[in-house]
Amino acid sequence: MILTVTLNTALDLTYRVPSLRPHSSHRVTEVTERPGGKGLNVARVLAALGHEVTVTGFTGGATGRVVQDRLTAVPGLVDALVPVTGPTRRTVAVVDERSGDTTQLNEPGPTVTSAEWSAFQEAYEDLVPAASAVALCGSLPPGVPVGAYAGLVRTAKAAGVPVLLDTSGEPLRRGVAARPDVVKPNADELAELTGSHEPLRATQDARRRGALAVVASLGTEGLLAATPEGRWRATPPTRVHGNPTGAGDAVVAGLLSGLVERLPWPDRLARATALAAATVLAPVAGEFDRTAYEELLDRVTVTGEVSAA
Amino acid sequence: MILTVTLNTALDLTYRVPSLRPHSSHRVTEVTERPGGKGLNVARVLAALGHEVTVTGFTGGATGRVVQDRLTAVPGLVDALVPVTGPTRRTVAVVDERSGDTTQLNEPGPTVTSAEWSAFQEAYEDLVPAASAVALCGSLPPGVPVGAYAGLVRTAKAAGVPVLLDTSGEPLRRGVAARPDVVKPNADELAELTGSHEPLRATQDARRRGALAVVASLGTEGLLAATPEGRWRATPPTRVHGNPTGAGDAVVAGLLSGLVERLPWPDRLARATALAAATVLAPVAGEFDRTAYEELLDRVTVTGEVSAA
To answer: I want to staple A39 with a disulfide (CB 3.0 to 4.6 A). Which of A11, A137, A244, B209 is the partner?
Structure first.
């Protein structure tokens, strides 16, 4: 199985309103509710691709119970979330039907105690040996030490399990130093990590900081990868328009599934790029359009060079 | 006991954000959560005043369970909510910390089936005979017939139990025609009902439409009452500043508690006015400041005239 870690799980609410006007009252015309947090999104895509996935991280309160009820309904997905006293956060995406724009409101998440953090680490250590790969995804809830991901990377590496890290800021900086197999920053996260806004230079720099492979997601321009085996750029066939929510998580799912299937890097990158584009095209935020994915997969362009042995 | 009816119960969330900017992402700095819907707010104030209160209406899904858990914790309050399949709605008040302004997002509420509506009517008929007074409060969820309150008013009157109606639009118009003992519109609701923006004329007109007594809540200007016993105006001692959320519900609680204690109208109006002002002054939205209430009670001005016998 593939193990995904979501320390700051969420219940993602989407509210459609005719037009968002600050300081007035709105009747929400449509409400949708789904489990959220990057690692859960990654797990859902992996399950849809036919992989067995176990999700861990934290769950608490009534919102946490809703998240778990929904996860249990996903075939191929096993819930190994660890209970905390504080309530799992909600995120609210307010979609303005007139402009199509989204206003996002994110609750901070539960404050995790040191005993709860220790309990999670133990649960994680028990899960890792059975995993073919681990994904560490998203922000840290209050109370979790900033070096958390560095420790979780080390645990996976000590068990000989490949580990991918997808986070930002100081947790990313510290996590990279622990030498994860893959990091997947977006352009902003990469620039923040390296100080360079030039993606080619920045991916190389991120490798020097400790990441074995760096796959930068550059939005509509596709992916840029710097790995021990070579450097590649993967580009979708057309510039797709739609909702980019979850596209980065689809990239992570594509990379991980390709990793455990031992695909060559260019094939992993093509899959990740097609999944991201098919997620942007899907009518439901965060889902991917399977027909579009299969149609796009052969049309992704991957160019690059293999490293000298 | 006093019975309050809240057909569209809610879980009221308050999100504080440093500054609300449409089409961008916000980290919520503080989240508060409480049961909502006008009838539940009225019940909480009545319970705080020492009355035994039973709440009914609808509850559904995970959000409904949270509402019920919170209600059970209120001393003096009995939960007689009727289950529905659809989920109880959430409301989100986004408070901009810089301006102090609030942006409100209200979910529509569960769609109530005709079988669920029948089950509620039966439960209501069983509860009414034991009540000293009934309050019918707030909007109707989808699926409940627009004449719902008219029927509930008639049931209470047939049982000889005084009934107060606090709603708006067509449900108010139909409900008033069923001759409730008291209606408590605000200025906008009163104007919508009567077509008149002149409160004195409009309160008289609302009586002609069927309400035995009309108490209009005019915000910082206090209350205007037209009753069979006379007409009065109640004015708070000072123009209070704060959060008006729940002030109208405090008025309803003041009027109802005065009714069951058989206070003369001027005393009921003074109590309702002081409770409303003490709610605006309270630091927590929808609660009332007891010290402020007791201090304000003697300082409310009630002027008016008793009707000729």
So the answer is: A137
Separation between Cα atoms, residue B171 and residue B146, nearest integer Å = 5
Q: Which domain holds residue A237?
A: 2-306
Q: Is A126 labeled as catalytic in the residue annotation?
A: no
* Residue A200 neighbours by CB under 8 Å, 6+ apart: A224
- Give CA separation, B300 vs A16, A232, B226, in Å: 44, 77, 18
pLDDT digits (tens, 9 = 90+) for B135-193: 999 999 999 999 999 999 999 999 999 999 999 999 999 999 999 999 999 999 999 99
Q: At CB < 8 Å, which residues of chain A contact B? A: 13, 15, 17, 20-29, 31, 62-63, 65-66, 69, 90, 92, 94, 96, 99, 101-108
CA A40/CA A174 separation, integer angstroms: 23
Let me know if residue B244 belongs to a domain. Answer: yes
pLDDT in the model for residue A309? 56
Q: Nearest 10 degrees: CA dihedral of B141, B146, B151, B154? A: 110
Please state the pTM of the whole predicted model: 0.86
Chain B residues with at least one Cβ partner in A under 8 Å: 13, 15, 17, 20-29, 31, 62-63, 65-66, 69, 90, 92, 94, 96, 99, 101-108
Are the beta carbons of B17 and A62 separated by less than 8 Å?
Answer: no
Helix (H) or strand (E) holding B200: helix B199-208
Determine whether the interchain pair B66/A62 forms a contact, defined as Cβ–Cβ distance below 8 Å.
yes
**CA–CA gap between residue A212 and residue B62 (Å, rounded):** 44
Domains of chain B: total = 1
Residue B105 lies in a domain: no
Site from B30, B92, B188 to mutate, A interface, most A CB atoms within 10 angstroms: B92
| B103 located within any domain | no
Q: Order of strands, edge to edge, in the sheet holding B25-27?
A: A30-36, A10-17, A89-96, A102-106, B25-27
- Rounded to a whole number of angstroms, the distance from the CA of A145 to the nearest CA of chain B is 19
Show Cβ contacts of residue B160 under 8 Å, excluding neighbours closer than 6 positions.
none
User: Rounded to an integer, what distance in angstroms lies between the CA atom of residue B140 and that of residue B108?
Assistant: 9
**Helix/strand/coil for A252:** helix
* Closest to A92 (Cα-Cα) out of A15, A176, A165: A15
Q: How many helices (H) and strands (E) does chain A have?
A: 10, 16
- Radius of gyration from C-alpha coordinates of chain A: 19
- Quick: pLDDT tens for B119-133: 999 999 999 999 999
B102 occurs within a structural domain: no
Task: For residue B215, give the CATH number of its domain.
Answer: 3.40.1190.20
Q: Report the 10 Å Cβ neighbour count for B45.
A: 27
